[in-house]
Structure formats: structure tokens, C-alpha cells
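tool_call: predict_structure(chain=1)
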Amino acid sequence: MEESRGSIAFFTTYRPPVPLDIFCCPVPPSSSEDEFPLTDGLSYNSNGQAIPPAVLKTILRRPNLASEAIEADIESGRLTGLIFVSERENHLETLQIALRFNDSPPEVKVFSLADVYGADSFNGVRMEDSGCFGGGYKVGSEIVDHSLIYVSTKEPVQDRRSPWTVVYKTNLSTGETERLTPPGKFDLNPSVSQSGKKIAVASFEGKAWDGEVEDLQTDIYVMNVEKSPSGLGRKRVIVNGGWPTWGGDKFIFFHRKVGEVWGVFRFNISTHETIRVTPEEVNAVTPAAVDETRVAVAVFKEKVGKLENIGLSKERNEKQIRHIEIFDIIVPEKSEQITQKIRPRVDHYNPFVIDGGKRIGYHRCNVGLLQNRDEIQRNFHEFQSPVEDVGLFRVSGAFPTISKDGSKLAFVDNEFKEVWLADSQGLRIVLKKESENNFFSPMWNQNPDKDTLYVCMGPSFHPDEPLQIIAIPNVSSGASNPVMLTEGSDFNNAFPSTNPEGTKLVFRSTRGGGDKRYKNLYIMEDATVGENGGELTRLTKGDWIDTQCQWSPRGDWIVFSSTRHKPTEDVPEKDHELDPGYYAVFLIKASDPTVVVRVIKSGYDIAGHVNHPVFSPDGRSLAITADLAAVSVDPVSLPLFLHSVRPYGDVFTVDIDPDDIYKNEDVEKFCRITHSRYENSTPTWTMFSINDIEEQWHLLLKDAFAPPVSHAHEDGGVAWHMSGHLCPKKKGR
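tool_result:
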């Protein structure tokens, strides 16, 4: 039964094109020679925390690690430890333990938490983050066991637009795990006090996530590491604060957005006094307390647009690059620069403290992996799937589409300049940008014998600009001559999809949409010639947006995303100044457009985003991209944090009745397929198992390929148009 229902492919936006890795340097550093890596350099690694020596001794007593070293290695400084997030385990973003042997040359060994503590607590599809350590203090004559405190999304949540982020504690001696976040509550970014007794978290408690993806405005709660008869003593201490970090046991540093500027503040637990630590003119985020007065922060002193911190390019000056600095509340007007002296043209993220502040750790793009200034190595990645009979993999390109017979894979490069094809002849470009227009949303004709690929061409994400649909017949042969199906049209046309016979094509268009450019669905009665001599039939009509349509494998229904049920009163025209919001997924009968059924909405009030629906090959399910799980990290901590967790969110599936359209109204149950801090989006679903496909493109799951990238620079800077595309805002999709 393995992958008997085929495989889902998707792509990830805003994930850096160059792998992230974790480094550290002394305080103060003098040059780049002072920096050294803390991991083995494999995979993407981020959000590290040093493992204290006493904790590392406890971890080393586990059977699987006992032979690696002895306590004397820790005491002498030969062995140090790191807890960090990595994508190395089934490409999930999970916590790992690194043992660094400071020999000559140094050696790093990495172990998963399942390796050390078993799979009972550390298994399944999930995201983990924010590892830190508690315990180790005395209660009477007893010493409380050391524990790992961390965030996981492993417990399913059926409430819509609710985070899945829960804080857990794993006893490092016994391996026993317990949930610390109360039922029905959700937390981020735990931090443990110096004594090991208290935990501070950024929490959604008492507030519903409303779609905000820049400034979450969480509150900060404090609770005990160990339960007493009365519980954990959880209480709110700070309103509107995120990313807490303890300065001793008396102070909590945190970040907060005030107006348009992010700042770092210090809260006094005893007096409840809050003081701003960083200057008002400097954006400062993700603090890591060194002691009661000093704190390491990531700063960017000038904004790029609306805080569009998009990596590096030669157009950005050094004040727009994210760097690590240390501020002291005693001398607030002066900071100690750290990473500017290491790599001035590289962004650095999420600092952490090592050896009491003698060293500072952080993560950045591992620019040493660049093959040359024009190439960035990338792979297709096979993921662990939460559904036993459905495979899952990520395509390192935008808008993947697979032919019905599984022999061909097409996608657009992440700069929207080229259309790529992978088949038995290998990987190659079949359409290349020759004007200011971009390419996106390729789609195969459902009839594989026609060997036709459809592509949208025009300015991306500009609903007021014309957007055309191109057909590329005989695309595999290389002798294709692209045909403009909407030639001469001044409308915004996109998301083509044919019926199973490949003779008709449904798409969305702004024609008839009036001044507000509303979008409805139309059918080209002849998918070969389009509007050039062929007839056009209007399928939907209304003052709303119908978009992202796909014809079902049986040809009877068409699925699409729409804002048609958005309230007309008391709601903003745009959701958080981005797009209309209120997207839900609908089914319509291709032969009777009066039959329309809403299948799934985002929130219970319909607000939110459920987008890019596609049918499973057997017609029994839909794959969607949606914000059903809200956010899983603080967006400001991400490399490209502006809108970097929506409108997509993650990939989900919804089961439907393929025979009775009316039984699919407002389906309640959904399955979360991916768990990520980035955006996983635009799925496609093929009938073939990942392991069964023998066509050449399947080799891309194992072999790397490296499309040229024009934004990698010799000084180590990387402009992230590959991961963030070219769009600061997603609107009018």
C-alpha cells in the first residue's frame, strides 16, 4: 500500500537558496579568521543554543553517546555541545545535538534526539524549535534533573487558524516528556532563567491569530520548570512582547515593534519596570541576554521598503544588512559590533551566548558552499509524509507540474525567468525570458499525448497589468513553437487547466471585472487555438475573485479558490494591507455552473487563505495551501520575514466525495501535510509513487542541479530573489 495514492510535490518560498549554518566568534572579534563553524556543515542548520557543561555531562550518560567521550573531555574544554534546528532528518525541521571535539583538526558529530532519547517523543511529521535547558538546581537535598525545553508542532490541532506550537520538557536523564503549554494554548520561543527554575515564553494565550505575519504581538508568560501541587504557576508578565531571554533571574529582555521600528527592551520581574535598551532609530530583534545589563541582538539600521530584509545585493548599503551587536543598558548610546568585523556583507541571525559572553553564536548563509558566483547548488528533496499511502517531495523551483503519465516534470525557476522541463532526456530550459515579462504557473495538458505545456506570461503579482496564457505544443521534442492563446487581450489571465481529453481549458480572467478588476472563470472551448478563432464561455460571474482553478481528473467538476463569500460590510478591503483575504475553496460543475459548493474555508468566519487547490489523481482528495495552522515561528526571526508565512502557510489535504458534489459542503476535517517555518505552496499531485517512477526526472531527487543565479556575489552576499521571488507583497493573485 506504500504511496498507492501517488505523491504530492510542492515548493518552498523564502527558504534561503544557500544553506544556513551556525557559526561563532569571540567577543570582540578582529577579523573573519576568528569565526568558526559549530556544526558539521551538512543540510540547513539554524537557531542554535550552547549546551552547558553540566547538561552535556547528563546527555553523555545516555547509552548511545556513552562511548563518544568522557566527562573529563567536557571539563578540559575538548568537548562542547550545541542544540540546533536542522533539516537533515527526512527534511523535517527538527532539533539535533552536535558534539564538537576541539582537536586538531576539530570534528563534529551530530545526533538526532530520537537517536539519543528514542522515538517515543521524537517521531512523526513535525517542526521543532527553540531548544534550551532547565533544571540542575537544588530542592532540599535533591538536585532536579536537567531537562530539554523546546517547541514542537507534533500534536494535531483541528481548530482553524490556530498555531500548533507547544512547549514540551524532556527529562535528560529518564527521557520522559511532558507538555508544559496548557491545553488549548500555544507558545513560542521558550527561554530558561539562569537558575534553571523559570521558563519565559511568547504566547498566543488569550488572543486569536488574525492573519498578522510581521508583528505577532504575543504576550510573555513565565512558569516554573517543575510542577508543584498547584501547577506550574504560569502567569503573564509582559503585554506585547516576543522572543524572551533571561538576564539572570530578575530580568527578561524581549523585542517589540513600536511604530515602524523594532526595539529590544528589558523587563524587571520585581518592579515591573520596562526600559528600552536599543536606540529608537535602530531596528533590533531576537535578543540573547549576556547578563543583567548586556544583550546581543540582530540589528538592521535602515529599512529596505517595509522592513523587506531580503538578504544581500550590491544595491544595499551596510546599514540595511542584519548584523549582531551587543548593547549595554548602562551605556545605551554605544554598542559593540560583532559580525560587521567578520563578514560585513552577509546577514546574520538570531544570536546566542556561549561561555558567559566570551563568544557569540549565530547563523548565516554558508557562502563557502557557493561553487562560484553564478551557481547555487540545489536539490529536489523527498520528505517524510504523514499519510501512509501518499508520497511527498519538494521541488527546487516554483509552480511544479507533473504530466498525467508521470513522464515529465515542469517548473519555473525562482526568479520567474525560465521554464524548466525534466523528462527522459534530462533537465533543460524550454522557455526563456526575453522581455520584462515573467513566467509562472505552468500546467500540463491533461492528455499526455498532446505533450502541451501551458504557461502564464506577464508582470507577476500585478492584477492591473495584462497577463497572457501561452501554449507550448510538442514541448518535449524541443521543436515547439509557443502559441499565445490570449493574444491581444488587455486582461489579466492565469491558471490554465484542461479537461481530461485536453480539448478545453478553464482559466481565470479580469475581463468583465470592472474598475476593481474582479476575476471570474472562463472556458476556452478549443485549447489549441484559444481566443484566436475559438469560442470563450463564461463559467462564473460576480464581484469577487475566482482564481487558481483546476479541472478534475474525471472532467465533471472544477475546483477553485474564491473570495465570493467575503462579507461586504465591516471588513477591510485588504487583509493586513496585502490582498483581499477571505479565500475559500469551491467546487463547480463544469456542465452546470449554477451548482457551486464551498468545500473548505480558512477561519470559522471565512477569513484567511485557502489557496491553490488541486485534485488527487483518484479524485478523492484535494491538496491545498492554507493558513489553517497559523504561524509556527516569530516571522521577524526569519531571513526574509515580511509576509513569509502567508498567504500560503503549509500544505494540507481534504478528503471529498468524488460522486456527490453536495456531500462536500464545508468539510470539517483536514490533514496537515507539511510543518515549516517557511511557506510551502502550490502543490501538484501525481498518481505515481516517488519510488516507482522510473523516468529521468526522478533522479533529481538524488542528484543536484544548479540553475544560474545572477545575485551571488564574490564578497559572500546573496540576494534572495530565488527564495523570495521578486515580490514584496502578494496581492491580486
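agent: Residues 305-314, 708-716, 718-733 have pLDDT under 50 and may be disordered. Proceeding to next step.
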